[in-house]
């Protein structure tokens, strides 16, 4: 067993995390542009793969044993870890795309959720409820990232994420479930490393937030119960009650001058603005 990797990266290591983050963001941008009724999830995966390859990076998802794709794509009652394939998207479907890239030995990891535009397919009310689920989940992600900017312990992220979801549920008169069996993580030389980043309140607040910390924050939220099962493909995580799922994720660096969202082209400026947090790039 090798030396235990430090949770805290050097300034040079943080700078090396910027490019894989931007490549991951570009891959998801390409997917977003392709999303339309009639497109298969395999075609979306190909769009992401083309960007990763063109930028001289490799898919870090393909470094996970047994996985052959650049993305995970999860539709409707699937929350995470869906396998791209022949499924044809319909207007009104809620689609979560998770992607990552490894570049010069460093990793990015990010996820977005999109409701497929168009008039056929799911009723307008269904599509609008699904868009709200995505918006709430994305808002919870930004609340978690904003909390990181002033947190002293990693566990404060989950407190902020859960608090945001609870306030949204009250405001909407809706039920939202936060998956508890799946969590965020540290990121660096490996896509998944310590520390664990919970999307809910935990008694043990975990390690200190200090310059050099790099984490992937990734709330996974349903429009019902948080109970899930793994489908027969051994990957896809689907809700037991058939409710819809949404998943948003960013990789974020903490440095001496503040925080920087590595997988957002603007470093998170737009997403953090409502929280009064101004990101700055690692120097
Ligand atoms: Mg991910
Ligand atoms: Mg992740």
In words, what does this structure look like?
- The chain is α+β, with helices and mostly antiparallel strands.
- The chain has one domain: Alpha-Beta Complex (Creatine Amidinohydrolase).
- The protein is 30% helix and 23% strand.
- It has 6 helices and 14 strands.
- The chain has helices at 11-16, 18-34, 41-54, 124-150, 156-172, 269-272, and strands spanning 71-75, 78-80, 94-103, 106-115, 177-178, 184-186, 193-197, 214-217, 220-222, 228-230, 237-239, 245-247, 250-255, 258-261.
- The strands form 4 sheets. It has a 5-stranded antiparallel beta sheet with strand order 7-6-8-13-14, covered by helices on one side.
- Strand 6 (184-186) and strand 7 form a beta hairpin.
- The radius of gyration is 18 Å and the shape is globular.
- Bound molecules: magnesium ion (MG) (2 copies).
Q: Widest sheet: strand order?
A: 7-6-8-13-14
CATH class: Alpha Beta
CATH architecture: Alpha-Beta Complex
Fraction of helical residues: 25-40%
DSSP strand content? 15-25%
Question: What profile does the largest beta sheet have?
Answer: 5 strands, antiparallel
In short:
Helix content is 30%, strand content 23%.
How would the blueprint of this fold be written?
Blueprint: H1 11-16, H2 18-34, H3 41-54, E1 71-75, E2 78-80, E3 94-103, E4 106-115, H4 124-150, H5 156-172, E5 177-178, E6 184-186, E7 193-197, E8 214-217, E9 220-222, E10 228-230, E11 237-239, E12 245-247, E13 250-255, E14 258-261, H6 269-272
């Amino acid at each position: 067993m090798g030396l235990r990797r430090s949770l805290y990266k050097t300034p040079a290591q943080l700078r090396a995390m910027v490019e894989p983050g931007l490549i991951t963001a570009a891959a998801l941008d390409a997917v977003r542009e392709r999303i339309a009724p009639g497109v298969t999830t395999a075609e979306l995966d190909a769009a992401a793969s083309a960007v990763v390859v063109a930028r001289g990076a490799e898919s870090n998802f393909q470094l996970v044993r047994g996985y052959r794709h650049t993305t995970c794509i999860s539709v409707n009652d699937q929350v995470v870890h869906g396998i791209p394939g022949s499924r044809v998207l319909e207007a009104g479907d809620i689609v979560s795309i998770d992607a990552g890239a490894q570049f010069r030995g460093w990793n990015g990891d990010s996820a977005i959720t999109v409701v497929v535009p168009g008039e056929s397919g799911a009723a307008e009310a269904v599509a609008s409820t699904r868009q709200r689920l995505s918006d709430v989940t994305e808002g919870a992600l930004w609340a978690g990232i904003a909390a990181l900017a002033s947190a002293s312990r990693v566990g404060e992220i989950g407190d902020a994420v859960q608090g945001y979801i609870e306030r949204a549920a009250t405001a909407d008169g809706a039920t939202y479930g936060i998956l508890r069996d799946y969590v965020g993580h540290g990121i660096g030389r490996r896509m998944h490393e310590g520390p664990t980043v919970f999307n809910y309140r935990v008694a043990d607040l975990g390690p200190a937030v200090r310059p050099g910390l790099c984490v992937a924050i990734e709330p996974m939220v349903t429009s019902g119960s948080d109970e899930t099962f793994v489908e027969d493909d051994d990957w896809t995580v689907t809700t037991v009650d058939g409710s819809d799922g949404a998943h948003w994720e960013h990789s974020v660096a903490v440095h001496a001058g503040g925080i920087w969202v590595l997988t957002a082209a603007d470093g998170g400026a737009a997403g953090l603005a409502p929280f009064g947090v101004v990101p700055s790039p690692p120097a």
